[in-house]
Amino acid sequence: MSDATLVSQELEGIATQIDKMLTKLVGHEVAFSLFVWTEGRSNYISTANREEVTAILKQHIAGWEAGMPDIKAHEII
Description:
By secondary structure, this protein is α+β, with helices and mostly antiparallel strands. The chain contains 2 helices and 2 strands. The chain has one domain (3-75). The N and C termini lie far apart (46 Å).
């Protein structure tokens, strides 16, 4: 079985675990998206709708293109 198939079959379970962990951490559900690349293709799952994911990805890419550094959110003062 290919890596892409294995990831695709397990992605929902992985996302469920991430959702539980994040909810426990902050006390309520928060939106997230998980992208995984295998064999030249991307698999993704998200708790947000496609329009929200598209908007946040465009915003993030624009930041990168503008030179936004890779700084962890908790390190920003």
